[in-house]
Specification:
By secondary structure, this protein is α+β, with helices and mostly antiparallel strands. The protein has helices spanning 12-23, 43-46, 67-77, 89-124, 130-152, 165-179, 189-202, 204-215, 227-243; strands spanning 3-7, 29-32, 56-59, 62-65. The model has no long low-confidence stretch (mean pLDDT 91).
């Protein structure tokens, strides 16, 4: 049995893995796990990842969860070009620094905007108060400024002159708010240029293919979501909304 990747391309980390594997010609079997249908909560998937989250990897009898761990596993196993995870101590440290920072910052705030603008109105059947959307957008804007000033600066890519895992992980996360209708690149020329470079480095067509679903997420309707998931989502999101 070869390498299997369990993915749903609506998920940012799944898109990073899919793009990384495809752009490096890593042979894998794409196992689709549709989150909206609750397929990640089945007994069958629990055998692959007891945490019931995508992405997940199965390589023979070896299973692995967590997208950063999977990206590094693939980079090492398939000896992908050095620029993805540089052997140079300080360049690698730059990649590690971004990957450590991004979870609660770019990922946290970008996901929150997507949930607030797309999923919450879908679950409650009510448009959100504008001030709620503005608050969440402002939180994202703060971390975008930090990303530009601290991580990107005036370099072509986060670790210097070549693309690394940090850039790929960053850009797929930033596409989530775009999928929610917030084009954060519009008034940020430096970010827009960086996005263009990242897309070109992995292949524009591949990048677009991976993002087809999320860029149509605004057309998502409640009947596409499994009923028990709707309840679960509603409970989680309303709880989160009341705390913010």
């Amino acid at each position: 049995m070869g390498l299997e990747l369990f993915l749903d391309l609506l998920s940012q980390p799944c898109r990073a893995l899919y793009i990384f594997a495809r752009s490096n010609n890593i042979p894998f079997e794409f196992k689709q796990v549709e989150l909206m249908k609750g397929q990640h909560r089945t007994e069958e998937f629990r055998k692959v990842n007891v945490l019931m989250k995508v992405p997940a990897l199965r390589d023979g009898s070896f299973t692995l969860a967590e997208s950063i761990a999977i990206l590094l596993y693939l980079a090492r196993k398939f000896k992908t070009p050095d620029h993805w995870y540089p052997s140079d101590l300080q360049k690698r440290a730059r990649v590690d620094e971004y990957l450590s920072w991004q979870h609660v910052n770019i990922r946290g705030k970008g996901s929150k905007l997507f949930l607030t603008k797309v999923l919450l109105p879908l679950l409650t059947g009510q448009p959100l108060p504008p001030e709620k959307v503005e608050g969440v957008t402002e939180e994202l804007n703060v971390v975008l400024k930090q990303f530009e000033e601290k991580f990107l600066q005036d370099k072509p890519f986060i670790a210097g002159s070549e693309i690394s895992l940090a850039d790929l992980v960053a850009l797929v996360e930033l596409m989530q708010p775009v999928g929610a209708g917030y084009d954060l690149f519009e008034e940020r020329p430096k970010l827009a240029e960086w996005r263009r470079r990242v897309e070109e480095a992995v292949g524009k067509q591949l990048f677009q293919e991976a993002h087809e679903g999320i860029l149509n997420a605004k057309n998502l309707t409640a009947d596409k979501i499994a009923p028990e998931l709707l309840e679960h989502f509603k409970h989680q999101l309303l709880k989160q909304a009341s705390h913010n």
